[in-house]
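2024-03-11 09:14:02 DEBUG pipeline.ingest accepted 1 chain
2024-03-11 09:14:02 DEBUG pipeline.ingest length=349
2024-03-11 09:14:03 DEBUG pipeline.predict start
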Amino acid sequence: MIVRPGTALASAVATVASGASVVAAAALKSALATVAVAAAALVQASPAAAAEPYPAKPIKFVNVYPPGGSSDVIARLVAQKMSEELAQPVIVENKAGAAGVIGNEYVARQPADGYTLVLITGAYPVQAAMLKSLPFDALRDIATVSTLTRYAFVMNVAAGAPYANVAELIAYAKAHPGALNYATSGVGSVHHLSAELFNAMAGTDIRHVPFRGGAGPMTELVAGRVDVLFEAMTLSLPYVKAGKTRALAVTSRTRTAALPAVPTVAETLPGYEVTSFLGIGTTGGTPAPVIERLNQAVRHMLSSPDLRQKLLDLGGEPGASSPEEMHDLVAAEVAKWRAVIETRHIEPE
């Protein structure tokens, strides 16, 4: 059909066409707006646009023990160096209580962004092995970053003890069953389990005298009221060097730089080894690039001669690890101590 200009029909057709154009234009505008929103969303979702450089704000470094102890001294040394490495303040926060459970749970419940770190000690896997239930999973809810230092315990005896070496101590204990005792900072502590591992491997019955932390065990050993004390190198060295106690052996696989003339327990009891450690962890689920950045910072700061010397002076042997190596260390320690606990029928208080 032919529509002639100027007719009513032509006018009607023009009106319809004009309306269609308006509708089309509106549809086009809506489509363009949708594309713009989608493009913006893609830009925001891209890692390059979304990720801000880590770290972009101060970092909390949790010490699960009270201020003033050896772990607190090391936490503050490490925090200072980490601040320099990361160009952000690293602030130590003491969250003590329940033998470290409170502080560790706090870290496990934080956002998984790398802004809450924790000083992990050798007591951490012991706690996981000893307690029947924890409010977090020790191998999942706290991610490992790197070890800082490892150190042996010292098998201390009173300065006037009648045994000159581990073999003589074992012989004396077997000749006088139940006569000797050992002091610890409490049931389920590393000190306690170290001594029970010794009893199990030596076939001795040296009795447990638990204290509730503090300086009690060392004070009683110096006074001659207890016979044996497995204690950290950091706390043992001053007493050994002053002649107030005698280092019968160290618990590491090999002799230590701090006490090179002192034999290992393993030289008498092959296979005996107890080494504790300090390391850094963060909230489980923290992105791998953040953990890798922290690991790089630890490795670099441990190359600092002054920090290494301070850790050596405290009886440790500084050394970084990969996150995976530290995780495997914690898992192996949990398994080892769980076996000792089950074999020796140790129950938490």
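2024-03-11 09:14:41 DEBUG pipeline.report The chain has two domains: 59-151+275-343, 152-267.
2024-03-11 09:14:41 DEBUG pipeline.predict end
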